[in-house]
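> call design_seq(struct)
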């Protein structure tokens, strides 16, 4: 176990051989899924908290945490997507947009929203319109205006189907732009 961090926070990391041994032990006990679920739940909490702070104007306070936890955030999102947890994957992508996408150009952040929005095309949940708006924004930034329009059309259909999240406002603003 290696201690890392500064005066305000102490974290620990495992050396790679110890990490592999721990993974083998978890698998041997049949606890891999529960450990992965706990990890995912924790980082879903982290990204929601970061997104709330970012939306409240704490832009500079969120990026160091996002930078530090980016590998874990990626793994957590992948688990949500792979396990078909559509609402949580959409929420993760929406709240991760600000603190992650606005600071890390090399991060495939704009892939989170399209992946979440494509998990179940018929799904309409609490974050569906917003995730489509984020996907549209990412497509627009990549100069894919046809893709952006397609995501916005999906957002409109989600709103017509009962989505009530703030994606309506974001989609309307993007449509105007």
């Amino acid at each position: 176990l290696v201690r890392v961090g500064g005066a305000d926070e102490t974290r620990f990391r495992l050396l790679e051989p110890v990490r592999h041994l721990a993974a083998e032990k978890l698998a041997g006990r049949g606890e891999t899924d529960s450990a992965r679920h706990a990890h995912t739940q924790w980082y879903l909490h982290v990204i929601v908290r970061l997104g709330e702070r970012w939306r409240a104007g704490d832009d500079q306070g969120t990026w160091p945490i996002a930078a530090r936890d980016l590998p874990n955030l990626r793994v957590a999102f992948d688990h949500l997507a792979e396990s078909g947890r559509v609402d949580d994957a959409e929420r993760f992508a929406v709240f991760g947009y600000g603190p992650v996408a606005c600071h890390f150009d090399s991060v495939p952040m704009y892939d989170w929203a399209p992946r979440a929005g494509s998990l179940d095309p018929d799904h309409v949940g609490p974050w569906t319109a917003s995730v489509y708006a984020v996907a549209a924004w990412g497509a627009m930034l990549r100069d894919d205006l046809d893709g952006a329009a397609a995501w916005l059309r999906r957002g409109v259909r989600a709103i017509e189907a009962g989505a009530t999240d703030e994606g309506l406002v974001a989609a309307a603003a993007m449509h105007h732009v």
